[in-house]
Amino acid sequence: xxxxxxxxxxxxxxxxxxxxxxxxxxxxxxxxxxxxxxxxxxxxxxxxxxxxxxxxxxxxxxxxxxxxxxxxxxxxxxxxxxxxxxxxxxxxxxxxxxxxxxxxxxxxxxxxxxxxxxxxxxxxxxxxxxxxxxxxxxxxxxxxxxxxxxxxxxxxxxxxxxxxxxxxxxxxxxxxxxxxxxxxxxxxxxxxxxxxxxxxxxxxxxxxxxxxxxxxxxxxxxxxxxxxxxxxxxxxxxxxxxxxxxxxxxxxxxxxxxxxxxxxxxxxxxxxxxxxxxxxxxxxxxxxxxxxxxxxxxxxxxxxxxxxxxxxxxxxxxxxxxxxxxxxxxxxxxx
Length: 335
What we know:
49% helix, 15 helices, four-stranded parallel beta sheet, 14% strand, six-stranded mixed beta sheet, globular, 335 residues, alpha/beta
């Protein structure tokens, strides 16, 4: 059995983070989904991080990281690279703490996300055609201008901040059997897994990624870090082709399984969450529901108490319209 105290992030780090992030972060609802419960034969709950500040769990990690910077680091200002949720988490945290922030985004970033990030008070720089180009620019700019860089996931304080979700789950459902977690770079699942397994090592922690891009799943299966990126995914918030160093170490040692879902399965989950549970989610936020609906986690769900983390709700309204139209057309053709 893995010694949890030897991992990059520990329960002590997460409990410390809980005291920090509760200054501003919402304790998000944990609600039972009667639709998913009836469909699976399990007792299925949804952890609604789409209702967190900025519409995503990312606020937790960003706030925990930035709040613990030294006064000298804060005075230099912070910089981050993100096409969406991490950007808004860093921007709002900086506004709340009175720190100057710069967010580097790809040139093709959705205008709504650019506007939202600027609305939280950050300076937005559009650099690079792809995220990796933007990230390289961001890291170089931070070094050249002596600005504090805030990583999106591969950082112990960021991971600890995300792990506070695990503590909240246990506060409301201490006898949970399975927790399903969307995965990109691995910050969320790392923190949540440590929080849960520190309380009860028998809780199953299952990660879910898109078939089109799943660096963490490919690495988990290979037991070493590998690259995987076949195509774009509607779960763009989890489009990470190569996992973090620290996050992979945690996932490799204590996560129980990783499963993959198709683009069609993610779209169906977005539609069903809107139609049956009245919850608006982005693609990444629908990953775990997609796995449930597709029957890919049946062994962890049937006759179990299950929490499915809905990680974010920052979806382009045009994308929702496309998904709804797709299913309406399909229904018309069937009739």
